[in-house]
Hints:
Blueprint: H1 17-27, E1 33-34, E2 42-43, H2 50-101, H3 108-115, H4 119-125, H5 129-153, H6 158-175, H7 180-192, H8 196-222, H9 231-251, H10 258-273, H11 276-292, H12 295-300
Helix pairs in contact: 2-3, 2-5, 3-4, 5-6, 5-8, 6-8, 7-8, 8-9, 10-11
Amino acid sequence: MMNETAANIPMNISLTMHAFFRYVSSTAYTQHSISILNTRPIYLNQNICLASQCRFRNFADRRVGQLFNRHTMARKEAAAEQKDAKRGQLVQAAVRVFAQKGYHAAKMQEIADAAGVGKGTIYEYFATKDDLFLAVYDTWMDGFEAAMEQAYQSHGDPIRRADAMIDTAIGFYEQHAAHAAILLEFWAHALRSSDPHFLERIRQMKQKLASLGASVTKQLVALKAFDKVDVESFALLELGISDGIFLQWVLDGQTYSLHDAYKFRQSVIGAGLMSTTLRTVMKPKTSRRLKQGFIAQTKKS
């Protein structure tokens, strides 16, 4: 009985390459038209030469191979997206449990329950609770570093750059005010842990932010907005001041505006570092802010 003609092959061919070539061989000497993958019809007859048949097979090999590769890549990309989404789900569940119970008291089963998955699923993504804890910090710091870099790159003027970076830092601290205990616990764990990755990640973040801060400070000095200062020392000190303001704000129950506290700090630093010319121009605004402070502002409101 004559085999089914190639004209009846579905356009979205799902045959394996081996099965496809067996099909071609079985119909190679029939008087039929083969149209595959939207190509122009190719006619085969009893006088077709072996070279032509080989050329057709090579052509089909390439086209089917391309289709197979595209399909494989699409499946891999979809699988990677699903895996990333699941990983993010587990990280967010860990944040909720860590915030409620603390890192050391939290159980992996509790995190699994919060994520709505089995405990074994967590271990498919994170070998230990330490790995999951590090992933939480990584997620936050990756976003923070990217936002600070964006704030830096979005402005050419160093004064605007400095303001944008300060606003970005304030936004990050306000966003994670409820997670302050987790941040502090991470720092403490980094100092105690024998795993160097925790302390390395903190230092990596600090180095990134210090580099951006030093660059802006150097530009302000070159612009003669700031007096000459050791920019690396100043940038490092700035990081400590920022963390300290955040911690004090949290310990005080967030009873005043974090934004006002940072602007007050900016005035204090500016009063000491601004060049004589800029200090004269900015004196009315700086003096007013220094006198008002930020605690009194909150009480008035």
